Amino acid sequence: MTIAASIRQIESRLQGRAKLIAVTKTKPVDLLKQAYDAGCRRFGENKVQEMTEKQPQLPADLEWHLIGHLQTNKVKQIASFVTLIHSVDSLRLLQEINKQAAKAGRVIDCLLQIHIAQEETKFGLDATEAESLLNGPELEALANVRIVGLMGMATNTDDEPQIRREFRGLKQLFDHLSGIRKPNVQFSELSMGMSGDYLLAVEEGSTMVRVGSAIFGARN
User: N or C: which end of the chain has fewer CB within 10 A?
Assistant: First the structure.
């Protein structure tokens, strides 16, 4: 199936219930251009270096989503153009994003990454840490970031009920935390679901799915 056909198929399955983010990590720019020509406007990258190399080669109306683990020393490289950072897992990182956003004259939207999987390898906050961060006095000072929701990755398993439970738990946390009202906390996005489980994620309340291999084929 062509990239364009794959995007059409996914969009028809989503039925407008969630935004499609094409995960473009490791993919060459010519494939990204094909996805763009097929109407895709949101690209997700894991690595800052790859994102900064590709961004100038593509149209300016693209949204760039940083979905991988972000080190504080790399924030400045993307602060001028990144649309949404999905992977905020500490106050320290949020403070650095705020600092670099201020230098770039921007407010950068962020999601808190929540650890929902039964795997030790995935990054993220637990529910208590996320709530503490959102209610903490330190957040008040960060005028150049806006926390717009949560992101999570389910366990890499074929156990559908388990995946569903993890997504459902994240949605319940999202609903709980969205009651927190601050100028820089405005919950609207729940980023969950990838190529293998995005339809489950949408059924459980996802507003953004991160799909790579179902568009571009298996990883190189």
Answer: C
| Dist. CA 43–CA 51, nearest whole Å | 9
Residue with tokens 């997700």: 44
pLDDT at 219 over 70: no
Selected from 3.40.50.720, 3.20.20.10, 3.30.540.10, 1.20.120.530, the CATH number assigned to the domain covering 3-216 reads 3.20.20.10
Q: What angle do CA 91, 170, 137 make, to 5 degrees?
A: 25
Return the domain boundaries, the chain: 3-216
- DSSP states of 63-88 as a string? EEEE-S---GGGHHHHTTT--EEEEE
Q: Give the chain's length.
A: 220
156 Cβ contact list (under 8 Å, min separation 6): 117, 119
Cα angle vertex 110, ends 32, 82, to 5°? Answer: 35
Q: Report pLDDT for 46.
A: 97
Question: How far apart are the C-alpha atoms of 198 and 164, rounded to whole Å?
Answer: 11
Cα distance between residue 15 and residue 45, in whole Å: 24
